[in-house]
Amino acid sequence: MDPLALIPLKTQQEDAEDERSYQVHSDLVSTLPEDSRWAPVRKFHGFWFRDGWLPSILATREHFLARPGDVFIAAVPKSGTTWLKSIVFSVVHRGRHPPHHEDHPVRHANPHDLVHLHDQLYRWRKNPDLTGLKGSYGIRPIPLDEALDMFCSGITNSGPFWRHVLEYGNEHVAHPDRVFFLKYEAMKEDPVGSLQKLAAFLGCPFTADEESQGVPAGISELCSFSNLRNLGVNKDGVLEKGRHVEKKLFFRKGKVGDWTNHLTPEMAEKLDRITKEKLSGSGLSF
């Protein structure tokens, strides 16, 4: 059962308050700086957001209360989020779902069905259209060089990218018990080692018996990109979480360095230069 279905329907008074709150946030969004070269986005507190989603983001920011034991996976789109969701689920629930079991949920459900998207956590129960997640996205295909220019200037969905990296990186240094900073390349290079560090951070380190039985390696194999991509549950059908997305679109090549097939040397040099400038003095590098 979808755990969101357990949330009780709101009263008429609560619905009216939601409508009022949404309208207040919508009015605020309409006054913010905008850009529409790729899709309609608005700038709020230094970050760019899809304008149709921003009222709900602001409502979530206003009402959502995290619990001490909550775990959030924060990442930009297409950076391995789906892969990491399967790993976190399998690490946390390995006692009930050993990786070698044929009925393991990862083999039968898309990772986004196992670990919900944050945009689904705050749901306007009676009128889901208020989330702004349905209807036309208004995304316009643009040339790669123009997209790169926008990325480098920070005008992307939830951009600028470097500010996210810096803020999470700084929090990791200040509070390593609360923020675990992962790099995609490091996970690809040493998946089992990354799993062990992740399990320790989540408060459920692998025991000596689990290590000797190959549990970390089993989870790594189960959640490997090649295995996930070839599972029927991730190849067929659509994911319906307020929007319809073909499941196969969540999995691309999953290879480090594939950018060389898309970016020219000049584009790569520009991106490297700006990355070094933005992260200068932080101790972070890519």
From TrEMBL:
It is an enzyme of class 2 (transferase). It holds the Pfam family Sulfotransfer_1. One of its GO terms (molecular function) is sulfotransferase activity. Keywords: Transferase. The keyword Transferase applies. Gene3D superfamilies: P-loop containing nucleotide triphosphate hydrolases. The keyword Ligase does not apply. Residues 69-113, 144-283 form the Sulfotransferase domain. It comes from the Eukaryota. Its EC number is 2.8.2.-. Belongs to the sulfotransferase 1 family. This is Sulfotransferase. It comes from Colocasia esculenta.
